[in-house]
Amino acid sequence: RDVTFFSPRLIQRLTPKSWPQACGEPMVTRKFLENYSCDQVRYLARSFGVPGDHTGQMSHGIRMPYGGCGVVTPFNFPLEIPALQTLSGLFMGNQMTAKADEKVQLCMEQFIRMLHHVGLPKTDIDLIYCKGPVMNKLLVEGKSRMTLFTGSQHVAEKLCADLQGRVKLEDAGFDWKVLGPDVGDFDFVAWQSDQDAYAFSGQKCSAQSMLFVHENWNKAGVVERITELASKRNLGDLTIGPVLTWSTERILAHTKACLEIPGASLAFGGVPLEGHSIPARYGAVRPTAVRVPIESLKDPVAFKMAGTELFGPFQVIVDWKEGQLPLVLELLNAMEYHLTAGVVSNDVRFLNEVMANTISGTTYGGIRARTTAAPQQHWFGPSGDPRAGGIHTPEAIKLCWSSHRELIYDHGPVGAEWTGAQS
User: Fold this and answer.
1) Is 205 a catalytic residue?
2) Is 36 helix (H, G, I), strand (E, B) or coil?
3) What pLDDT digit, counting tens, does each position of 310-325 carry?
4) Is 258 in the active site?
């Protein structure tokens, strides 16, 4: 029991996660290690051969490591992201230097100490405690061959320029969910929407940022049900808690700005938490949603405001009606980031229409569709960008941590008809 609970307890010492949220990281990490246990890592580097155009010629495609690589990860997943990405790079034969956010680095340190205990050579992974500018200097001057960065868009763009494009990015996500015309499994859909928007106080790159609610769901009262669920979140069990990157003042200012969009109204929240000692530098607000009519988002200024990612317990609810799907799709594709998405419907034609006309990298479809909590067997990463990185799957590991190399063997013999004619 003490061993099982060590990692979740450590995560809770470093981040304000509820117990179920804290337990999720070691569970996914354990299953990831099970997936690549025994001899499975060998098959990540599986090669292939193609016959040549004469006897003795054969081309072989192989996966090659980059060499010295870096991993830079944020505070919100102290174990899962740095552990999985660092090991993924190691699986493909790279020398890894890892930096988790300095506020939560202790978790990654303990994980590496565990790896040493079970036999990992101590020369395989370098771990550095430092702030961002120091790691940036190390990557540039050390000529990192490839760096996987998970975090803010601003830092991602700086790294991309400084490292001359030798990066893979799991950067910001302003993630959407569409509730389709067919209403079903009402309580589950409402619960999942509450989870996607407000678990870990919305501090996930996959958190539901904009919920498009079809008129049929409105008639069924889904927003009222989400309001009821959100109201139950409290500091006592950390189902709501401190926001580490946005202050209360800044969150409330953004909420006020969204409410100035024509037709906007406050669905719920929009007030500070009470009865706590959270420092003013952090955010402490009730789960919040601003409701906006879809017609208002035709205005680019309004859309930009509504589409600003707030890394906290905040979402925009957009009402839409039958016949407005083309406008919904236009807005979805106008968003800047394309990480995760959910299409809540069992109407196959509706699902096909939305999925065929959007590009989010990890898109869930069906009545149980969500945006968060990708398990270890799912690719998780953005789409529509050649720098997009991924996590979990063999495809993600090979894409991020190796490059293709072609070896062409041409042993002969030289044909008797060869004349040596020049061309």
Assistant:
1) yes
2) coil
3) 999 999 999 999 999 9
4) no
